Amino acid sequence: MTQARILSFDPDGPRRSRRSGARGSGSTSSGDVPRGNGDESRNGDLANGDPDVLARLGNAVDFVRRRLSGDYPVDEFGFDPELLDSVLMAPMRPLYRSWFRVEARGLHHVPGEGAALVVANHSGTIAVDAVMTQLALLDEHPDHRHLRMLGADLVFSMPFLAELARKAGHTLACMADAQRLLAEGEVVGVWPEGFKGIGKPFAERYKLQRFGRGGFVAAAVRTGAPIIPTAIVGAEEIYPKIGEIPLLARLFGMPYFPVTPTFPWLGPLGAVPLPSKWIIEFGEPIRTDDLPEGAADDPMTILEMTDRVRETIQQGLYRVLVDRPGVFG
Amino acid sequence: MTRVVLVTGAARYLGGQIAARLAEQPDVDRVVAVDVVPPRQDLGGAEFIRADIRNPVIAKIMDAADVDTVVHAGVIATPMQAGGRATMKDINVIGTMQLLAACQKSKTVRQLVVKSTASVYGAGPRDPAMFTEETAPKHPPTSGWAKDSMEVEGYVRGFARRRPDVAVSILRFANVIGPSIDTPMTSYFSLPVIPTVLGFDARMQFLHEDDCLEAMRMIALAEDSNACTGVYNVAGPGVLMLSQAVRRLGRPAIAFPRSLLGVAGRSLGRAGLADFSAEQVRFLTYGRVIDTSRFTEDAGFVARWSTPEAFAEFVRGHGLTPLLPIFATEQDALKQEVR
After folding, report:
1. In the list A175, A206, A265, B102, which could disulfide-bond B59, CB 3.0-4.6 Å?
2. Residue A44 in this model has a pLDDT that exceeds 80
3. What CATH topology corresponds to B3-181+206-235+289-304?
């Protein structure tokens, strides 16, 4: 399994090493080589490392064979970790490193094992922020945690999106699934603002919208999982939404049809996100296992906790915003 | 203590098999197997009585034999098996009502096991990833076998309320698959090219036919019949994605937009090749996974074949050979060379 996760055709492999060298951080640290694959040295030059090249080729062949013969495990949610790590995330990594230059802070607040609930602000017209947060935990967290996100039912009724979301490990935002994932010790990601947050106009950037009904807090309290308030700065500027076309939204069955300074005017070119500088800050965990018995069924406790999480994220946003050198940093 | 068991639906594979299996058990005195048509398979030590459960005659049979355990495996899955949807619905719903009426009158019956299906949960985008026995279906089935099963379960619950002294168990099975059984699912996977739904990949669970029989046997002959009453999900552990299953078959798949699959499927259905009812298309789109932990806890049942293993058994038993060039051998050879 572990072998198969590194692919010789990973387009990002060499670039990653180069970048890490440029940053001057230890290029052999596990932070730079994902999935703890230290034995598969990436620094091996293709020309002079014959056994290495052959081993990689062997791995790639093995990978292709297993994929084509259906010989790989998926979990009950349809999560296909191998596909996520090697294929789905491959095109996202250059975006993460070179385009948005994402800086992940406070990764130590996410436990190396066991359940946690990452709660973050949502923005950016399409859910790129969720994917980047997932990638931050997958590639930069020392234990390479998979973030299992809770998505709106719309996601699971749309062709292709539904398939991708399931394979990437995400599931429907409902109490049953949230509790099941947390009880299994997974890191669960939730964006409680939902479409209100992601589709808000550019003028309201970094202002947290209303936080649902606090169902996510109840799930964390029931399972005793810590809540990690997370502030994502940078996603607001990728597609500054200055208007919408309700008619087209209705036509396509979407919650909104965005208009940005470039989209839909420039066609596909307008869909290229602006290269804003991103900072994802995982905040101090809020413990839920010290609450009295039955706290999950006490609406007051849950609502107070929801407010507290919301406040913490808002404060985090302001702090990181001040800290960020500039929008395109 | 000896027992007399009545098995309905004995002319079909699972009904006949469970009748034969129960007849082999040392503590079973007699197995009375009924169906409207004579069975094509050997029922072993079970006695077959050709009787229509839609008819009150079933009560007479139960009385005459002093039946104490009823295994209701007589809910039909496809119209093809019954000779039309109207007959199918009649056998499923009216048959169950008659059977339950007979059970209610009976002085000897003390246990009822009903073979149901996980398709009563329906399938859709607003469902949780796994169904527990309590999950309320968000997209309840609207037609066919699944809807019949839902109604059957409703009548069975009513019966359980009226006769609290009878231990009633409903087993909701995932798709039963294996070397011998023929179901809409097995005929679907036997198509030379597998039609799938564009942009969706269903999560599926299978239960090996032998595990299905074993689960029914276990519940029907439980020492303490009251220990396992209620509704239970039964499936082989693990999950296969539809795409994964198709790859394991080694057959090509064509993806149709969902609306087209319904249309294309109906013509296939008319040709008698496979079942593409609305329910089946929903299942092929969204899939369904059930949580079987309650059955494991209460009955101590662990399926011998996991979902992937049951699927492999099905592929082997039906002699399905890959139609695509076999990647495995080619790639293995290449790998050898590389090493």
Report:
1. B102
2. no
3. Rossmann fold (3.40.50)
Of the pLDDT bands very low, low, confident and very high (cuts 50, 70, 90), residue B29 is very high
**B121, B126, B251, B330, best to mutate vs chain A, most A CBs in 10 Å:** B126
ipTM for the predicted complex comes to 0.89
Among all residues of chain A, which has the CA nearest to that of B328? A65
Confidence grade of residue B1 (pLDDT, cut at 50, 70, 90):
low
Is A180 close to B129, i.e. CB distance below 8 A? yes
Instruction: Examine residue A264 and say whether the peptide bond preceding it is cis (omega within 30 degrees of 0).
Output: yes
For helices B278-286 and B144-162, what crossing angle results, to 10°?
90
Q: Are residues A37 and A117 in the same domain?
A: no
pLDDT at residue A238 tops 60: yes
Q: What would the pLDDT profile of B111-130 be if each residue is shown by its tens digit?
A: 999 999 999 999 999 999 99
- Do A26 and A85 belong together in one domain? no
Given a cut of 70, whether residue A15 has pLDDT beyond it is no
Closest chain A C-alpha to B134 CA, distance in angstroms: 11
A129 with A88, same domain: the answer is yes
Which residues in chain A are closer than 8 Å to B327, comparing Cβ atoms? 64-65, 68-69
> pTM of the entire structure?
0.86
Whether residue A4 has pLDDT greater than 60 = no
| Confidence (pLDDT) at A254 | 86
Looking up residue A143, the CATH number of its domain turns out to be 3.40.1130.10
Overall average pLDDT of the B277-288 stretch: 91
Contact B53, B109 (CB under 8 A): no
Distance between CA atoms of B177 and B237, rounded to whole angstroms? 14
Q: What is the pLDDT of residue B83?
A: 78
Q: Per the CB < 8 Å rule, is A159 touching B199?
A: yes
Write out chain A residues lying below 8 Å of B335, CB-based. Answer: 58, 61-62, 65
Instruction: Find, in chain A, the residue whose alpha carbon is nearest to that of B130.
Output: A76
Question: What are the chain B neighbours of A158 within 8 Å (beta carbons)?
Answer: 199
